[in-house]
Design brief:
By secondary structure, the chain is an alpha/beta fold. The chain contains 14 helices and 17 strands.
Length: about 450
């Protein structure tokens, strides 16, 4: 792990080399069909309408919208769509003769989004999508369909909003062996955790505030349960390690059990709690986990506030690169969509996951995670020798203690709060220690265990 002094923080990317060039003509416009006119779709329309000259200057050809599709034609979206043909059915939109590039912004792992994407690829049309769920579940199949027809499937907007992390992996870092990918990839969770810490509020209080602000998905577990961020990590892992997307073997744990006490105690020990995704290839197989972790408070991830995203990429040649920016929202996500659109307009054609889909192998899921330190919080009954029994349970399982701290009496004078930071250990050894603690009869509540990740 390089020291923080060696970290490069990247705020721009160099122009990538042309890969798999496809002839274009400055006389022929690139005609877009956009399915989905929500926040991101409207953002894309605004960019195309307001920056037509800039887009043409940067690509050498006009980029225009010819047709759109959404659930409601009459909804006021704040942009003029009267000059575009309308299709109720996104599949029909994808198959129109006046659509060269199908832009899928509907969302959903299956249903209309998948059907329309497959329809476009089946006739050899390029596709740009922001749909992380669809790609996490069907990415390999869709990539193979695109490849078979000579089409490209691009998805920069599906991961970390406006942060160009897909381009970084597929192009900028293509000469590196990727060693680890880590990051905070769900702005809602980071907003909840940082507001809990900064304002001393409970999880339930901030959850309700986030819901009122519209930060949460219709199904909140997609955010707070780590599923949304897990989809993103699965896509990055496929690119970084040259494997087929394998969301099914992602280890997922949300932030629902994090308490304000955990946040305060972590801060007291020099850490902050983040919903952190980590993927790395080890001798045991591919590790993929999206779980709450403690990170050093002074690290780049530890200083990340509110709804911002951050992805850390580690390559054998480049070292550690930190990408930080807006992970959602109209402007940032539409910017990422247009990044893919403009590459296609320029004739830049890159395989979906950075290498031909037919060469990607199925990963072997790691049977155990890399050893790491853990934060343990527990409440002990105020009995003679209680702390010694806990220490003995850890020792019997081969888990050594780095730091231990006992706080003042709880509201209940018969209960004593205790914090322990272990040395690096395997999760199986830690689980054995936790089982041993439960057998001591000195625990007032079940211990809370959170992994510490030094990123």
């Amino acid at each position: 792990m390089p020291p923080f002094a060696a970290i490069r923080t990247v705020s721009f990317l160099t122009q990538p080399e042309l890969l798999m060039p496809k002839p274009t003509s400055s006389q022929v416009p690139l005609r877009l069909g956009i399915a989905g006119l929500g926040t991101v779709g409207v953002g894309v329309i605004k960019i195309v309408q307001r920056k037509a000259n800039l887009l043409a200057q940067r690509t050498g050809r006009a980029v225009v919208i010819t047709a759109v599709s959404a659930r409601s034609k009459d909804k006021d979206r704040g942009v003029d769509i009267s000059n575009y043909a309308w299709e109720d059915d996104p599949v029909a939109l994808a198959l129109r003769d006046d659509v060269d590039l199908f832009v899928e912004l509907m969302g959903g792992s299956d249903g209309p989004a998948k059907a329309a994407t497959e329809a476009a690829l089946a006739v050899g049309k390029d596709v740009v999508t922001a749909n992380k769920a669809m790609l996490a579940h069907h990415g390999q199949m869709l990539a193979e369909k695109a490849e078979a027809k000579g089409a490209v499937l691009r998805f920069e907007a599906a991961v970390a909003g406006g942060i160009p992390v897909i381009k970084s992996l597929t192009e900028g870092l293509a000469g590196n062996r990727i060693e680890r990918i880590a990051g905070v990839m769900n702005g809602t969770c980071n907003y909840i955790l940082t507001r809990m810490e900064n304002e001393g509020l409970s999880y339930d209080e901030v959850f309700e505030a986030a819901k009122a602000l519209g930060y949460l998905e219709a199904d909140p577990t997609l955010d707070v349960g780590g599923i949304d961020a897990g989809h993103k990590l699965a896509l990055l892992a496929a690119i970084g390690f040259g494997t087929q997307v394998d969301f099914d073997n992602m280890v997922l744990e949300g932030i629902e059990r994090i308490t304000i006490e955990d946040i305060r105690h972590a801060a007291d020990m020099g850490y902050r709690i983040k919903l952190l995704g980590v993927a790395q290839m080890t001798g045991r197989g591919l590790e993929q986990r999206m779980t709450p972790c403690l990170v050093p408070a002074l690290s780049p991830l530890g200083q990340l506030e509110n709804a911002t995203n951050m992805v850390v990429l580690e390559g054998d040649e480049v070292g550690q690169i930190v990408l930080r920016g807006a992970g959602a929202g109209e402007g940032p996500t539409a910017s990422a969509v247009m990044s893919d659109v403009l590459d296609i307009a320029r004739g830049i054609r890159v395989p979906t996951f950075g290498a031909p889909a037919t060469t990607l192998e199925k990963s072997t899921p790691a049977v155990a995670a890399t050893p790491a330190p853990y934060y343990l919080r527990m409440s002990l009954l105020d009995k003679p020798g209680a702390l010694a029994k806990i220490a003995a349970a850890l020792g019997d399982a081969g888990v050594s203690i780095d730091r231990m701290r006992q706080y003042g009496q709880d509201a209940n004078p018969e209960i004593a709060p205790v914090l322990i930071v272990t040395d690096a250990t395997s999760r199986s050894s830690l689980d054995a220690a936790l089982a041993g603690m439960k057998a001591t009869s000195v625990l007032a509540t079940d211990p809370v265990a959170i992994r510490i990740e030094n990123v």
